[in-house]
Specification:
The chain is mainly alpha-helical. 73% of the residues lie in helices and 0% in strands.
Length: 138
């Protein structure tokens, strides 16, 4: 049972990796998809324009249906991006909280975070978490 704190620290570190690396990267992918969707809609009216002798609106019958579908897809992408960001924040808070309740786990998590070049290179430098240094109140 002597290494249970260390194992818990490894688990907390993996949560922190997901919170600061994996989830933000996936959220960024969604952000790029949102930008791509928005760029498509910029010239849509001109692309779907048709001669007036066909009757109806100048954009034809597809335009309104496409705009509705576009708005739906964009809403799904935006909601998913926000959910990923919120999940990352929650995982980070949970890892920090539990590292603050168990000294051995907190020390192990901090050691692993210091040794991980991906966390330091892409995120703010990790703070030290340990008993008595809880960053969040639940």
């Amino acid at each position: 049972m002597g290494d249970s704190g260390k194992r818990f620290g490894v688990d907390l570190y993996e949560l922190e990796q997901a919170a600061k690396g994996d989830f933000p990267q996936i959220a960024l992918d969604y952000s790029i998809a949102i930008g791509s969707c928005n760029s498509v809609s910029d010239g849509l009216a001109q692309v779907l324009e048709r001669p007036v002798y066909f009757g109806g609106s100048a954009q034809g019958p597809v335009y309104d249906a496409y705009r509705a579908l576009h708005a739906t897809v964009l809403g799904f992408l935006t909601d998913t991006q926000k959910n990923l960001e919120d999940t990352a924040t929650a995982l980070d808070k949970a890892a920090q909280y539990f590292a603050g309740t168990d000294r051995e786990a907190g020390d192990e998590m901090n050691r692993l975070m210091r040794d991980d070049p991906t966390l330091g290179a892409t995120q703010n430098p990790p703070k030290q978490y340990g008993p008595g240094h809880l960053r969040y109140d639940f």
